[in-house]
């Protein structure tokens, strides 16, 4: 079954928001706000008011990375220092906690940061091909509202876009 | 008089245009500056080759003066690196949006300062081929580096900081790299296509971007503080007079922020002048940076006084004698210069007229950094001149080899920065757009009314007014 991708470019956020709000109120039967992708030149947290809170699992990657870094860091140091058992320690602790805390702390941060970045790359779906409907105008000053929908809804969506003073409509058909 | 951080009526397309224009073909002045930097690096390379061939003798480093300009300059560059990332992260978390036009070059400054600082322990080592001994690897006798040593902590901390701040700089730049990709041709387009990693500006990407930026900022603040605390531990963990001081970690962190802020002022003025960024790097933003620098300068001054008082009343005779020697001994001119440049000169930042006069601020910022460099030198050298053993008391002045390498490090930093500003956007386009958008939005009548209604919800039926909105 053919799937249609339609993107409308708007001159401002207000018109784009109004369009999404109408979609949210089922202005087009069978199309929900989950089918909407908003493309914008800037970050706009208020968009979640209309798109709904979609959450981000990136902090879980951070937590995992930080805990892993902390455990790995300490165990790595302790394992290395345990090798010193063959050497005289002069009464000092084989595994000294105060000095190990410093390096454990650094490892916590290093792995936390790296894991956060990996989490971002995965969840933001970076390093993938750009969508054919991507418009350079989105990186300039226009706001794009893109939907994936059936053929029967394409005309209603275009009408909705036009009602909200869309500047340009682009579409793509996938098999 | 300009009072707004940014003009909210500036068009988004113009922001792209202005920043992208700054990355276009360099003018003659750029090439001259680059040539000067390369000449400075060449001087340092010749000095280093000479030192490498002959040994550490020509540097004048000999017992008890094992540390001198190399270590002082290492601490200086580490300090310089602090303002970029640390201020960017702190100001991001507290949502001070005036950071937006200036944080990009400040973060780049952090990365390049660390890349410069990292060279000094290697140069200082003399036997550069043994540098890998500090890395955590096991030798064939099962011996690891001494993890109790602050020098090993340094290696860990600086590597972590360099990695994290480079990632922070890169992640923050991805949306701008996508703008560059959409506007570039030839090799630049290929480069930006790879670096922008397929950024399309959709809500999914922005949502995760917002999260990662906040999380990284949260990591970088304690990291930056820990890095300079660890650098201070190189000194404070020893029992040398003048170094074994409890206030050293906050003193180093304050000094780092101070020199970093001063460097931000210098680069702010240069970029504003040469790239004509008058509309983004505005006078009110300059004023805020100056006020911040002044506040940090006062913290630094306070910590200095605390250190002097602790030494004076501590009854450690060697430390006290060292302190007196700093004031009246052979290093006194430099020590007094440090105090004047670090504690008295910043009072120029307290005057609005001077803060708004860019040529004055440019000169002041250079002198503040000179003061901060002297501070590091005055930490390292006098202690080794007047230590516990009077028979070893001696004043050693750095040789031309040391001076040449220190001189070259400024060329190295300058070269990296000059390349950066021509290859990458030195002003964050998307964040300036956000700044403009929010200011425009919050100044609109509709929002003003809405805000006021929300505040007076309990007074149902009351006519909304715009007062205070």
Annotate the secondary structure layout.
The complex is a heterodimer of chains A (175) and B (469).
Chain A: E1 3-10, H1 13-24, E2 36-39, H2 48-51, H3 58-82, H4 97-123, E3 143-149, H5 154-163, E4 168-174
Antiparallel strand pairs in A: 1-3, 1-4, 2-3
Helix pairs in contact in A: 3-4
Chain B: H1 12-22, H2 28-54, H3 69-93, H4 103-117, H5 119-125, H6 150-183, H7 186-196, H8 203-236, H9 248-274, H10 283-314, H11 317-328, H12 332-344, H13 352-355, H14 358-385, H15 400-423, H16 429-442, H17 445-455
Structure description:
The complex is a heterodimer of chains A (175) and B (469). Chain A is of the alpha+beta class and 175 residues long. Chain A has helices at residues 13-24, 48-51, 58-82, 97-123, 154-163, and strands at 3-10, 36-39, 143-149, 168-174. In chain A, helix 3 runs antiparallel to helix 4 (97-123). Chain A is rod-shaped and about 85 Å long. Chain B has one domain (12-444): Up-down Bundle (Formate dehydrogenase/DMSO reductase fold), CATH 1.20.1630. The two termini of chain B are 23 Å apart. Chains A and B meet through strand 2, helix 3 and helix 4 of A and helix 1, helix 6, helix 8 and helix 16 of B.
